[in-house]
Amino acid sequence: MARPIDPRLSIELAGIPLRSPVILAAGTAGYSDELADVMDLSQVGAVVCKSITREPRVGNETWRVWPAKAGMLNAIGLANPGIDKFMSDVAPRLKNTPTTVFGSIAGTSIDDYAHVARHMETIPELPAIEINVSCPNVHGGTEFGADAGALRELVSAVRAELTSSKLIVKLSPIAVGQPTLADIARAAIEAGADALTIANTVPAMQIDVRTRRPVLSNVTGGLSGPAVHPIAVKLVHDVYRKVAQEAGVPIIGLGGVSAWDDAAEFILAGATAVGVGTALFADPRAPLRINRDLSRWLNTHRVQVVKDLVGQVILPA
Ligand SMILES: Cc1cc2nc3c(=O)[nH]c(=O)nc-3n(C[C@H](O)[C@H](O)[C@H](O)COP(=O)(O)O)c2cc1C
User: Which one is catalytic: 90, 135, 155, 290?
Assistant: First the structure.
């Protein structure tokens, strides 16, 4: 029998009720229920499925995952079975997944994203669809998430395909100069994003000094885990204060969460929900600990619901 979750942890994300603010991040928890053997999925707010593309992809050659000193590097290359197989094999299983599932889409053209969105929109068990915009746009070469104009076009096109599903735009942390991530977030919101995920992995590279070769076959990859956490906290803080709070658009804070205090930091910075990714590889039950310890945190701050702590960081006067 499913253990009850502290009701004070329940949240609403863009109108979608979730039992907990703790969400399993795209690409780290399978397509829906694959982690059910090692953890009670009814204890998490949602699972975001691994990103799906229009066509199947085998991804990059090994090595495509490598340990870093404070996290891990990956260049999986979006290996996935493609939307047709997702519709035939995964969609029927969603009814029996004991938590909410969000779809996730990746692509290299606006048409590709729109095609996958059109299919996912027909699945009633996907109340929200996240778009992974850390993918290069074949027409310009730059990532959608680094170019406010391209992102605006992409978000509008996907938005036009969705009637009942909410649209979550998962931003890339690479927009740290000009435009800033707040500018990029504003473009996504103006084009119809219902929620934002901040952020994807940080572009990175590691070299084996003995062989003088990059450790990943793809040469570069994305860094995740504890090393990226403070970067993501700042991005959530900036986007919340500059754009999202006023627009009433919720943020999913993501990057390096392995314990309750990492999750609490994101919430104080302005996140309504919190993703867990890399930590699941070391401890798939980490989300259950995080729920328990977030409840204790609510007690120490004497708040009725976790929502009351969103954005409540105390800044110097
Ligand atoms: C092995 C691996 C695969 C990933 N695959 C995806 C993916 O398919 N789509 C996506 O949007 N993000 C993907 N991510 C990024 C995570 O969802 C998350 O944004 C990132 O890892 C930072 O969170 P973390 O530090 O908690 O892992 C992947 C990350 C890892 C480590």
Answer: 135
Residues having CB within 6 Å of any atom of ligand 1: 25-28, 50-51, 65, 72, 74, 76, 104, 132, 170, 200-201, 224-225, 228, 254-257, 276-279
How many residues are present in the chain?
317
DSSP label of 33: S
Q: Hey, which of 28, 47, 196, 251 would you mutate to test ligand 1's pocket, going by the most ligand atoms within 8 Å of its Cβ?
A: 28
Q: What is the whole-number distance in angstroms between the Cα of residue 26 and the centre of ligand 1? A: 5
Under-50 pLDDT residues of the chain: 1
Burial call 130-165: b when 16+ CB within 10 Å, e when fewer: bbbbbbebeeeeebbbbbbebbbbbbebbbebbeeb
Q: Are 1 and 23 in contact (CB under 8 A)?
A: no
Question: pLDDT tens digit string along 182-233?
Answer: 999 999 999 999 999 999 999 999 999 999 999 999 999 999 999 999 999 9
Would you state the structure tokens that stand for residue 243, as one six-digit string?
A: 């754009």
49 is catalytic: no
Largest CA distance in the chain: 56
Which pairing describes strands 46-48 and 22-24: parallel, antiparallel, or unpaired? parallel
Say what the pTM is. Answer: 0.97
The number of beta carbons lying within 10 Å of the beta carbon of residue 295 is 17
CA of 200 to the centre of ligand 1 (A): 6
CA distance 87 to 97: 15
Q: What is the pLDDT of residue 137?
A: 77
**Domains of the chain, first to last:** 7-59+79-203+222-309 (3.20.20.70)
pLDDT tens track for 22-54: 999 999 999 999 999 999 999 999 999 999 999
